[in-house]
Amino acid sequence: MTQxxxxxxxxxxxxxxxxxxxxxxxxxxVVHKNTVIAKGYNQVEMMHxxxxxxxxxxxxxxxxxxxxKFLKDCILYVTMEPCPMCAGAIVLSRIPxxxxxxxxxxxxxxxxxxxxxxxxxxxxxxxxxxxxxxxxCGGLIKDFFGKxxxxxxx
Length: 154
Fold this sequence. Notes:
Oligomer: single chain
Shape: globular
Largest sheet: 5 strands, mixed
Number of helices: 5
Structural class: alpha/beta
Strand order of the largest sheet: 2-1-3-4-5
Strand content: 15-25%
Low-confidence stretches: none
Helix content: 40-55%
Order of helices and strands: HEEHHEHEEH
Radius of gyration: 15 Å
Mean pLDDT: 96
Distance between the termini: 41 Å
């Protein structure tokens, strides 16, 4: 198991928490000096807040933990490619690297639909590593939406 897979497994645990709460199962962890300093999972439905994405919650917690707005020595692990909102927050946080699981062909903003995190005109670019534990991360998303479709049919 690679180091990226090890941390992605922790992000997957967060995504499973979201699944249990009937949230789209996306989870995130922020690692600083080989230690998880922040965790997050989608809480949009529970909080009635469209910004309560896993990445946003984890970035906010990491900044609070470090007492700094810039996360220069951190890596963000997230189970699904960030959306435009989260990609913007990632750039603003000055985090140097993100590692994500499955690609998002509808809203992905780290290479799929658009590429905010590595956009040349922005003042900070993020090194992106995609597809880590892609099958596991994508499988959880597919299972969730399959469950939702089945519940609608009943």
